Known about the structure:
Chain A is of the alpha+beta class. Chain A is built from 14 helices and 24 strands.
Amino acid sequence: MVGLLALFAFDELWKVGSHVFYGLEALQHRGQEKFIVIDLNQGKLTLHLFNELRAEISQHIKGYIAIAATLPSKSIDEYACIVENEGMSIGVITDPMNSSSSPCRIAELSFKYLKYSFKIPSQQDMSNYVSLVLRKEPIHAAFILTNTGTLIIYRGINSLRPLIIGGYGFDMVIAASESPAIEILGGMIRKDVKGGEAIIISKHIINSLEDNHVDNAKLCAYELIYLSRHDSVFNGISVYEFRKKLGMKLAETFSKDVDIVVPVPETAIPYAIGFAEALNKKFELGFVSTGHRLRSALKSTLMDKLIAIQLKMHPISSVFRGKRVAVIDDSMVTGATAKTVTQILRNKVGAKEVHFVIASPKIVGCPFNMPLPNSEELLAANLNGDLILKYIEADSITWLSLEALREISNEMNIHLCTKCFFKNT
Amino acid sequence: MKGLKILIVGEGGREHALAIMISRSVQSPKLYAVGSYVNPGIKRIAEATGGKFYTCKTTDPIGITNIAEEISPDIIVIGPEEPQFAGVVDVLKEKGFSVFGASKRLADIERDRVFARTLMWKYEIPGRLFFKAFKNLEEASKFAEMAGDTVIKPARQAGGKGVKVVADQEAYLTKDRSIVKKVYVEKLFKDISRKYHDIDHKIVIEQRVEGVEYTLMVITDGTTVIPLPIVQDHPHAFEYDLGPETGGMGCIAGPGELLPFIEMDEYKRSIEIVRKTIYALQKESKEHYRGAIAGQMMLTAYWGPTVIEYYSRFGDPEISALVPILESDFVEVLEKTVDGRLACTKIEINKDSAVVVKALIPAGYPHDRSIARNHPISIDESEISKHGCIVLYAGTRLDPDGILRTTGSRAVEIICTGEKHSEASKKANIALEKAVQSLDGWPLYFRKDIGSEELLVQRMELASIVREVYGYRERRGLLGASIVWIPKKGIFIDPLQNPIIMR
C-alpha cells in the first residue's frame, strides 16, 4: 500500500527533482504519512525523507535517477534502506506484503549479483538474482538502485498491486504504481509489469526477466474498488469503467423507489453515475469538500477519520430537502462515514429517506497489509445486517454481492483477490 | 555478350541488402564492392559472382575513383550518405562513370538540415515544420530555453546522432526541461563546431510533432519517381519503445505497399511530398537526381504526412525489408535510373508477405560505442536459413585472423517473412537467439517486440487518433497552420514562419 515511483534518465543532464515531486503528488492518495526518495547523483546514492509533500522537495533531489514512494506509515524501516559495501552502494524501496520482508536484507543480498565486472549484468546473474533473492521476499514490488546506475524494477510473484512502465521520449523510463503518475510526467504507458517479472534498466541495456512469471496476476479488489485513481489503467482496463459497471450492476438488485442518487465524495462518483444511469434516476452532486482531497479510510485514528469525513461532506441543502435519497459509497469499513451521512441528511437538511448502496461486498478482513483496520474494527465483521441498519439509522442498505463483483471482473478479464470478503483468511 | 559489372560503395547492412538484390538479376552481373572494412556477407557475394571486395575509405573520392578505374563498372551504386557528402559521386561522374546516388549538391537535402527545411518553405511543400537555425551559440541557447516543445538537431546530418527531442507539454515541468535544452545546445554546438567544417549553421531547433513514424523510399531518374513500399523503423533502443534513439533497431513492411496503420491516401500524399521535393531540389541545383531518396515521415495531427527529415539514399535498415519481397529485376531498375529511362517502369513486389527486420546490437550501442566494439561473435547462417530468414552483416567486420568482430554499431540484421508480422517476428527471435553468439560473454541485444501484435495495435490506435485531428484541421483549412492570439496585440497566423534566404 505504497505509491511507488521510479525515474531513470539516460542522459545525466536531467535532474529529476520536479518529476519526483509531481509524480509523488499523483500517488499520494496511496499514503501521505511520509515521502521517501533515493536519488543517484555523481555516483552517490542519497536517501531523502520528507514529512510533507511540498514543491521545495524538488530542490533537494539533484540526481538523474531516483526511486521514491509515498508511505502509509511514519516508520520507514520496513520500506527503504541503503547499504554500502566496499565503495558500492545499493538502495531499495519496497511495497511489503507483511512485516517479514526487509529492504535492508534485499540490499545486502543484492551485492553479490549486481557487482558484475562488465558495465552490464549478465542474463545468468540476473536470473539467479530474481529467483534467489527477489522471489523469496513477501513483497508486492521493489525498486533496487545501485550507485553504478543500474535500476531493477520488480513486481512480486504474488503481488496484488499493479506496476506500470512508461517512457518519456528517448530520454526517460518512468515506473509507477499507477498509470496517471507516468502520464502526468509527460510519459507514455508502455507496459504492465507481470507478476514475478524483473526489469533491469541500465544506460546500455533494458532486459526483462520473466521466467515462470504470472501472466494475469491477481489484483486486489480493494485496489480497484477504493484505492486507485479513477483515471488509472491496468492491463488496458480502465478503473473508471470498472467502477461504473459495478454501479450499474448494483442497480439491478436495488428495489427501493428513490428520487435522487448521490455519491459520497469522491471515490463513489463513478459508481453513482453508473447506478443512476441504469436506474434512470437523477444524479445529483450532494456534497462539497473543504480543503484538499482527504482519504478518510486511510486515516489511522478515529478522530482523524472523523475530521476527514466531516470536512469532505458539507451538504447542498436544496438537493436533499424532502427527497428519498440513494447514497452510494464504494465500501463500508467502520461505518463512520455512513453514520455521519445519515445524521447530516436527516437532521441537518431534512431528507425523507436515506438508502445506502455499497459498491462492494461486506469487508471482514485482509491478510495482505492493506490499509484496513483489524477485523475487530470492521463493521461488517462484527454486526449483523439488521444491527448495521439500526446503528447507521438508514432506511435500507444494499451491498454488492460477491457473485456480481465476480461477474463484472470476469467480463473485464480481471483476476481479483477477494480475500477481504471472507472471514478467517 | 559482355558481362555486366556493378560496383557498390559502402560496407553496411544496407549495402549487403543491395548486393543480394543485385546478385539475383537474370543478367548475372559481376558484383564488386568497396568498403572501409571487410563485410563478410558482401565479400562472399562479390566473390561468388566473379567480382571482388576492396577496402578503402569510402569518403575518399580519389581512392574510390582509382578502384572504379581498375574495375571499370557499368554502374556504381553509392550506399551511404557520407561518400555523397564528400563528393565521391561528382568525381566519379566527371570520369564518365554511371552512378546511382546523389551528387554532393543534391545530397544537401540530407546533409544540410537548414537547406532541406528552407527548400520546403520556399516551394511551399506540404508537411513542412517550423524551425530556426543558429550560427551563434548564445542565440541558440537562449532560444532553446524559451522555445518549449522542440527538437534540437545538428544543422548537419551526423550519422543520425545528436538529435534531442524534448516534449514539453506540461507547464509544471517546463523549467527543468529548459535547463536540459540549454545545456544540451551548448554541448551540441561545441561538438558540431569541432567535428564539421562544411556547414554554416551549427544547430537547428524545430517544432516537435508527434504521431506515427514511417519511411517512404523512392527511386528517381530526375523525372520519374517510383515509390517503394512503406517501411516503419523502430528508433528506440529497447523493447516497448523505451530508451535512446538509434539508427533503427529493425523495421516492418507489407503486406503490399502499405502498413496496417497507413492509408492509401496518406501514402499518395507522402509520395507527392517527396516528388515535389525532388523537383524543387533539381530546380535549385540544376542537376538531375539519379538514385534513391527517402522521406523520414510522420503522420501528425498538424499536417497529416509530415517530413521529419530526408535521406539522400536508401534507409538503413529500411531497404532490407525489400529483399524478400522484391520481384522486379533490381539491376534493370538501376540501369534505367542511371540512363534516365525510368518512365513506365514499375517495381513489382510480392504482396502476400509481411516482413520484419531486426538488428542485433552489442551492449553499449548507441551511446557508448567504445565499449560496444571489437567483441568477437559467431553467426550460424545455416540456422538462420533453417527458419527461412536472411542474415545481413552490418557492423560486423571480418578480421584477417578470420574472426568476426563488432564495429560498435548494429552488428547483424535478420530479415524474416510471414503471413502476419507477428509470425515473422517470432521467427526472427528464435533465429537470432540460436544463431548469433557472443564469444567473449559481452551482452548482445535485439528487440523481441518489433512486429508484435501489441505494437501494431498501439500504432493503429495512435494513427486513428491523429487521422481524426488532421482530418478536422484540413476541413477547417488549418493544415500546417498555427494561430496565436496574444491579448491586446492581436491574432498572428504562422508566427514562427522562418524566412531564411536560399543560397
